[in-house]
Amino acid sequence: MECSVQTLTFLVALMIGALRAPGERVYAATPEWTLLVAAILVGRGILGAVAVLGLDAMTDEITS
Predict the structure, then answer these.
(1) Which H, E and C letters describe the chain, residue by residue?
(2) How far apart are the first and last CA of the chain?
(3) Which of 10, 31, 52, 55 is the most exposed place for a label (fewest CB within 10 A)?
(4) What pLDDT, on the 0 to 100 scale, is given for residue 35?
């Protein structure tokens, strides 16, 4: 089980690191930060997290 936790930790760190370039592009392409722009970005982030967690929950049965 420890190997799986280390692998999962590595993959999560890799995905978080991969968000740096798109984050810099969004920051550079946004001329003015408003509450609406921030809300849209946060909403999309939450939607992405829900999608990942939903897929994880649906495939949990396969890996067990």
Answers:
(1) CHHHHHHHHHHHHHHHHHCHHHHHHHHHHCCCCCHHHHHHHHHHHHHHHHHHHHHHHHHHHHHC
(2) 12
(3) 31
(4) 94
